[in-house]
Amino acid sequence: MVNFVQLLKAYNVFNNNGIAVTPKIADVKTNSKRVLSAKVANEMLMILRKIKEFLLNYLIDLLMIDILFSLEKVKDFGELHQKKLLNIS
């Protein structure tokens, strides 16, 4: 199990071009060291952003489907899902 500060430190490696920096609340000089190359850190950051975008879009889709079901506009989820995959309205 990790705490919030540990998670923040791990994620900041990608934001800081592979350099690990311990998060601080105050403006204090901290030790830092390179733990990933800048290239790998940037690639990971792009992957994480794509995952975030996918998950947000998926959540929006689920909310829209829930709304449509509650309005009884959609009777068949399979048909709706196929239309979504094929970009058919």
- Helix segment count? 3
Tally the beta strands: 2
Rg calc: 20 Å
The helix-and-strand class reads mainly alpha
What do you see in this structure?
The mean pLDDT is 77. With 89 residues, the protein is mainly α. The protein has a domain at 4-63. The chain has three helices and two strands; from the N terminus they run αββαα. Helices cover 62% and strands 7% of the residues. The termini are far apart. A two-stranded antiparallel sheet has the order 1-2.
Give the helix/strand layout.
Elements: H1 4-15, E1 19-21, E2 32-34, H2 38-70, H3 77-86
Antiparallel strand pairs: 1-2
Which key terms come to mind for this protein?
single chain; 89 residues; mainly alpha; two-stranded antiparallel sheet; 3 helices
Give the gist of this structure:
With 89 residues, the protein is mainly alpha-helical.
